[in-house]
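Box 3.1. Reading complex inputs
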Amino acid sequence: MKLYDYILSPSCYKVRLMAALTGVTLDIRPVDFHPGAEHKGAELLALNPAGSIPIFVDGDLILTESSAILVYLAAKAAPEWLAVASAEEAARVQQWLSFSGRLTASLGGARLTEMLLRPGDIGALQAQGVLALRELEAGLVEQSLRGMRFLAANRLTVADIACFPYVALAPDGGVSLDPYPAIRLWSRALRGLDHFIEMPGIHRLHELKPEPHIEAGEA
Amino acid sequence: MRLSHGFVRGEALSCIYHGWSYAQAGNCLRIPAHPGLVPPETIRVATHVVEETDGVIWVAAGQPEGGPPRLDGLIPLRSLTAHADVAAIEAAAGVRASAEGVVDLAQSPGIIRLLLSAQTEGKTLIHVLIKGTADPTAGIAASRAAESLRRKAENLHTKGIAP
Amino acid sequence: MTMQAMIDEWYPVGLASELDQTGRATALMGEPIEVVCDENGDAKVTGSNGRVLPVRVRYGHVWSSLGAPKKELFPIPEADQPGRRFVDVGVVRVRCSPLRAIENFLDIAHFPFVHTDILGAEPHTEVQNYKVEIREDVDEVWATQVKFYQPQAAKSASGGITTEYMYRVPAPTCSVLYKTCPPRPSEWDVITLFVQPLAEDLCDVWPWMALFDDTTSLTDLIHFQQTIFLQDRSILENQIPRLLPLDPGMEIPTRADLTSVAYRRWLKRHNYTYGAQLVAQ
Ligand SMILES: N[C@H](CCC(=O)N[C@@H](CS)C(=O)NCC(=O)O)C(=O)O
Ligand SMILES: [Fe+2]
């Protein structure tokens, strides 16, 4: 299973994170997205004419939508992450998978504009990002009232992984997460998982490890 | 660096940047770059009086004379930020806030109570509390009512209609 | 803030490899500028009123100045050394003071907390004494014998090593760091941070490297450095106050911060105050 990957891409990080959490080993092929724009070059366009990453290849199968890749990894390695036991949960998973595309367009767009100098209407992108965050916050509040800790169920599903990266990296695009306590709690729960991996912009939760006892001169 | 990005181990709050940790009294406990050093008393962060009652965390600006208001029988539901000032929220709710910033939602008096706290840049922090049991259906309805109120207040605020 | 002293300095304004005839609209210290490739294939930089600005193409980047530089662009002798690989890491915009971006680059004490398990890790947090000086002959800030334990010091490192660093500040918004080179212990890897000040609290950062590493792919080298810098970015955007305080009193330095102390003193001495605040606010 080969992943055409960029270390700063939240969409690629979804796949790396899902693989890490479910114990899947990926064959990582780094893509020089910035500054090289390798994803717009002949080799990668042949795999994905849309010119985006991630690109995921497993034998004959080529996937270029991160949600589809998450579903594939889950179906192969951790079917319980699909939450298809009830109609409601299955539908909620789909609801948030589709919604995640809006996060990419809004918060992801703001991040590319603010950070990597992509042309874009930063005010509009940030405003759309705020609307999306409010929707997610309300969704998480309602889930918690239903006794559910995660977006689609009382367990992690692919929906959480699809939404987490662009949300956690919203500040990279100049959108603060301070107004969203439910999102921050949810984000913390994810960051505290066994086998969780970070990407640049998401810091280690140092509180998960006890304070080390060190003597001067020992370093 | 903002300490809100930091981490809490035991009773100490540490900064994410260099790991300096602070005790509840604000004094610096540890500077990881110099493990052998006892941080001087002069290194400290500002502290504020904090109290938790009825599921709400209160922070005092300065030295308060008494404790925070009691919210008997109310259950905190959620907090949300409106890009609208208190006046716009009052206009949207159709009621004036009390001196403490309390608004009872007109459509269901006594059931949903809002605590309003003015922020910078014309924003308002709204804490939503509900009366009685935290029945999921009532909670979800109250959460949605608060969202609707925010939408209305923000519309008034942008249009400059609020008094 | 005064712009005068810093106006005569050289700043990076683009990647040499990305020069084209369409041009790149950017800014220098609040003034819109344009960077293009002219008919002869040379880099050309123009200011807001169409005036032609000084230009150099060096270290993978195009350099310019709003004023009249009194000195040539600072030397990096390693840039001409055979066997090195030169890596354009690409631009990253940061909402911070250009001086804060440099100061952060000079700091090692944050490694265990911000670059966890790469450039540092608890419990190896101690910063041992090192040497700092302002070299009057070249008018540069230098820190030497800086040592730190690093879990993964470079893409080419396998496992933890104690790395030695030397830091150099040859210009107010540029720093060059020399670092233990895992595949070639007799040489130093060169990692630079070239900062383009757009405004006092906004900058475009252009990291660049000259490394001895024949095995790692170019993309991996870029990704390693981008990883490090993007970990710093969220810190830089949350520093308070936004401008770098040059007067003592606002921020408390320890022995670990001697490079920063010297850098601030050197900035103040030269009136390099674009992006700085003088009086505690
Ligand atoms: N195909 C979608 C979108 C992924 C996406 O937007 N990827 C970004 C990188 S994070 C990209 O490749 N953008 C192309 C570009 O900006 O040139 C997905 O997999 O979720
Ligand atoms: Fe750093």
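In summary: Chain B has a mean pLDDT of 90.
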